[in-house]
Amino acid sequence: MVSGLTTLTCDRLTAREWFKMRELLNGVIGTGVGLIIFFLLLPVSHPLIAVLISGAIGYGICFLLLDKRAIYINCQHCGKIIETNTPWICGSKGCRNENVDDFPFIYRCEHCGYYPKAYVCHHTGCSKPIYLSKDEQGSGFARCANAPPPEKPKPVKDPHEAEVAKEKNEIEIIRLKVDKAKLSVELKDHEKVLAPPKTIEEIYRGIVKTDIDAIRLHAYIDEEFKNDETTREKHHLWVKAIQRSLLDKN
User: Predicted confidence band at 114 (pLDDT cuts at 50, 70, 90)?
Assistant: First the structure.
């Protein structure tokens, strides 16, 4: 229904038809107002003057006042007013429509010609589709150009898949720890290979820490080199030297 000379409030399902008929409706209103003014002026003025004045007023009402008036619809969910001369984004190819006086979302896209079947309410807390026809299509909604695009719903995770993923993650961690341990052993083996060989004296120094260690080592030398007196004496001398160095330190 007509709510005023500068606005037109329509039902959402008939808004497109009202928009298509606006020029005809504006012409009828402008002509009607012009005729009324003409007949009011005719008794008090020259007919030509009455024609000029009534024509100018009728033209002004038709093309200047009514032609660009906004069409309003109500959101079917939150009940708030939506002005159809809002810049909008086409739901088909994402075209941006700024020429909203001639191509509002209740009509069609200026660029690709798409006719939106619904417009997403731009009021805070609503964001639900306002269907513009009885065909409540679930996609291709027009939306306000200044509103952020709607967030895609996050997929619901299957609890079984989440448990499997957790187990796989734990297995992967264990595998990494095993690989790390193997690498550590291999590294130590390489270090042993690369390290220079120790002399007999260095080996004995690592063994002899106390007098008891020295006695045991002397007994080992006697047994190991019992048939080689020269080598046996040399090894005993090394042990004794190590014992003296220990005494000097103490």
Answer: very high
Stronger pLDDT, 127 or 53, i.e. the higher one: 127
**pTM (whole model) above 0.70:** no
Give the pLDDT of residue 2. Answer: 39
H, E, C per residue of the chain: CCCCCCEEECCCCCHHHHHHCHHHHHHHHHHHHHHHHHHHHCCCCCHHHHHHHHHHHHHHHHHHHCCCCEEEEECCCCCCEEECCCCEECCCCCCEECCCCCCCCCCCCCCCCCCCCEEECCCCCCCCEEECCCCCCCCCCEEECCCCCCCCCCCCCCHHHHHHHHHHHHHHHHHHHHHHHHHHHHHHHHHHHHCCCCCHHHHHHHHCCCHHHHHHHHHHHHHHCCCCHHHHHHHHHHHHHHHHHHHHHC
